[in-house]
Amino acid sequence: MQDSEGETVPATQTEQTQHYLRQFLQESAPLLLGIIRSYIVRMGMAQGAAVQSLATEVLHDAALEALAHADRLNSSTQPRAWFLVIATNILKRKRDEAIKQARREILISDLHFTPDAPGESEFFDSLIHYAQPGPEGAFEENEQVREMLALVAPADQKVLRLALVHDLDTRSVARALGITPGTARVRLHRAINRLRQAWGRHEQQEKEQEG
């Protein structure tokens, strides 16, 4: 490295490690890509051409993450093993996100949303967003959610927490409540509907008070 006056400045340990990692990634990219592809297949995350696409995406994301945290690479640690741990963690995060998304889509289809209920799916999207755990990992610490659930009866709060907080599908909600899946779908649908209506009234009141 050179400073503004053209004099050579010793590279920091992190910079040296980043340079080493870049060289390693350039030389080992095909091998790493092949290993990541095998992980994807074993985890059942993709098939066919989608495997290569996902593997390339994970390789890129893992490279960025590795370079950003180069200071964590111990000199006694093999870079390939360290890099593959990062790639595996990225794959696990993607798999968990896909599972949550699939459960959410199943839940929405179970509730039979229709155009006759304008704004219902948008409200559900908003509720799902608020229900995601924050940095503290505590759903109940989300003031927005507490305020929303306080607008409905305890029975509605219970079924909403099971579906949204604990991320249960309607069959699991049914088991937790000791009722049939069909009854669970109806209760959840009605609870979301009542919450949506109550929240709409609440927001309208706030607008009127502000006006």
Detailed description of the structure:
The protein has 211 residues and is mainly alpha-helical. It has 2 domains: 13-101, no CATH class; 114-210, Arc Repressor Mutant, subunit A (Orthogonal Bundle), CATH 1.10.10.10. Helices cover 72% and strands 0% of the residues. It has helices at 13-42, 49-68, 79-110, 120-131, 143-149, 154-165, 170-177, 181-210. Helix 1 packs antiparallel against helix 2 and helix 7 (170-177) packs across helix 8 (181-210). The protein is elongated and about 60 Å long. The termini are far apart. Mean pLDDT is 78; it is low at 112-118 and 133-141.
Question: Which helices and strands appear, and what pairs or packs with what?
Answer:
Elements lengths: L12 H30 L6 H20 L10 H32 L9 H12 L11 H7 L4 H12 L4 H8 L3 H30 L1
Helix pairs in contact: 1-2, 1-3, 2-3, 6-8, 7-8
Give the CATH level 1 class of the largest domain.
Mainly Alpha
Helix content: over 70%
Strand content: under 5%
According to DSSP, the number of beta strands is 0
- Summed up, the domain count is 2
Shape: elongated
Q: How do the helices and strands follow one another from N- to C-terminus? A: HHHHHHHH
Structural class: mainly alpha
CATH architecture of the largest domain: Orthogonal Bundle
Question: Largest sheet, if any?
Answer: none
Output the CATH topology of the largest domain. Arc Repressor Mutant, subunit A
Radius of gyration: 24 Å
**Count of individual helical segments:** 8
- Assembly of the depicted chains: single chain
The CATH homologous superfamily of the largest domain corresponds to Winged helix-like DNA-binding domain superfamily/Winged helix DNA-binding domain
Overall mean pLDDT stands at 78
Distance between termini? 61 Å
User: Any low-confidence stretches, pLDDT <50, length ≥5?
Assistant: 112-118, 133-141
